[in-house]
Structures
1.
Amino acid sequence: MPGRVMTNPAHDPELVPPGTRCVILTGRYSYRGSDRLDITRQGCDRLRAAGNPCPGEVLAPSHAILWPAKRALEKATTDEARGLIFAAYRASYISELRDRYRRREKEFRALLEAPYQTLVCFCVDERCCHRVPAAEALAKIGGPAAYYFGECEPRPSGEPMRVVCVR
Ligand SMILES: [Zn+2]
């Protein structure tokens, strides 16, 4: 596909199921490909304040669920506690997306018009980031025409699970 740099050999377009019209990936905030979609609350608020379009805002968590989760994570002292906080945050986020989809379906569908969307967030580890449930939700909305491929740059192998941030 033009305009996209494949950073992971696993992301060979040949491996995408036939009939796919939108390949969804997730990545870190530093990702600079032309298909980068900022889905962070801070990033979208900044874009909007500067008068720029922010199509990823429909996938950004609300302030109402983001800050309590962040404060709770900062206070948590064990990985188990952080895991539980993230699980609860993830559930609130998914329920927020469902509610938003009912009111803003067109914005979700518009994202699926692009051949690639790489959803980015500040979190280092995608396993404790809203970008994965966001990608999964988008893929579900797109049905067989959409496919979530995974993280666009692989983690170094053996990197331990770290629940350190929610943004
Ligand atoms: Zn994140």
Note: Residues 1-10, 155-167 have pLDDT under 50 and may be disordered.
2.
Amino acid sequence: MKCSQGKVLIVVMFVVFLVQPFCNKFFNYSVSSNAPHNVWRRIELRHQDLYGDPRIQNEIADLRIIVITYNRADSLSRLLKSLKNALYFGDRIVLDIWLDRSKDGLIDENTYRIASEFQFKHGVKIVHNHTFHVGIYGQWLNTWTPKSNSSEIAVILEDDLTVSPYFYKWLKIVHKKYDKLVEVNGYSLQGISIKHGIGSEGLLEAPFGNIVFLYPVIGTWGFSPNRRNWVKFRDWFEVMLQDEKFQPLVPNIVPTSWYETFIKTGKTEGMWSMWHIYHAWKSREYTVYPNFADHLGLTVNWKEPGIHYGPEIAQESKSPSNNLITTWRAGYENLPENPIRLDVYGNVDAEEDP
Ligand SMILES: *[C@@H]1O[C@H](CO)[C@@H](O)[C@H](O)[C@H]1NC(C)=O
Ligand SMILES: *[C@@H]1O[C@H](CO)[C@@H](O)[C@H](O)[C@H]1NC(C)=O
Ligand SMILES: *[C@@H]1O[C@H](CO)[C@@H](O)[C@H](O)[C@H]1NC(C)=O
């Protein structure tokens, strides 16, 4: 059962990366088949001027929730409802909802309506129309522009998630505990993940008794960056974009084989995370994952319909990826000073730091 769940997840993730750019009903890149290094895409990204967005985030916040969406009004509505029901402890909360545009510059009106009509009683809500089509890269890389003295926590949420009422409680605790560790590049909220090493099977989990673990690969089903590492990663990304021969390939992991497939087919624009994975690998950085019993998560992913799953996945996709934390237990706060580290095969990695 667990094993087959792992397989299903692998297929789901691949398919999501594959179709993400094409869920867009207006999508119309014409990719030249003789553009092996996707130069076309890099030029587009450079034109986005990742740091040039003038909409500086001026409001002071303890938590900035960044919701990225395009044309899935119902999904957005479901996510916003879960955000409304979460606990915020009277802190200063900003909810940024970022709407991408089609290649033709259109905002999806239904999605806009859901975003603009949503009442957020816990803080400030701001709906941002992107000024042009930015795709999934721009949505992730250009929506959080913290000032260098900012201590706000940010979390980036794609619209096919819902959050646990306790997601912010968790973020406060883990940021406080682990932001100081130089190797921690952020916090994933998902309770379930594949193992990324090629040939590994089953779901990723740390030995019983560990509330968290460190893992080399980012989990994108709700991710809260460590500001220091995030800025470093974005700086690096901008530099590497200039090198047309560079590809972010990390040996022996499944995402690399997906990315290689996408290079061949000119579809790498669905997989920004490969760059993050590469950067983490080169810099020996890790993401902190929760390790609750039964793969409970601070988010769940709804494996959005509209994507062409096979019958097995279609069956699975009627339900979310896993269950949410709906009860808080004191034990969740028993965080070790130095979390256990797993390698991409899910084995405890005992190797000392260099
Ligand atoms: C998509 O792009 C191709 C090639 O530029 C063009 O011929 C076609 O009309 C476009 N389709 C749409 C729906 O814009
Ligand atoms: C954002 O797009 C919506 C939908 O097209 C439009 O009604 C609204 O005025 C736009 N907002 C801004 C600030 O441009
Ligand atoms: C950060 O710096 C700006 C400008 O110097 C200042 O207005 C702001 O209060 C500072 N914020 C924090 C959290 O210290």
Note: The first helix runs from residue 2 to 23.
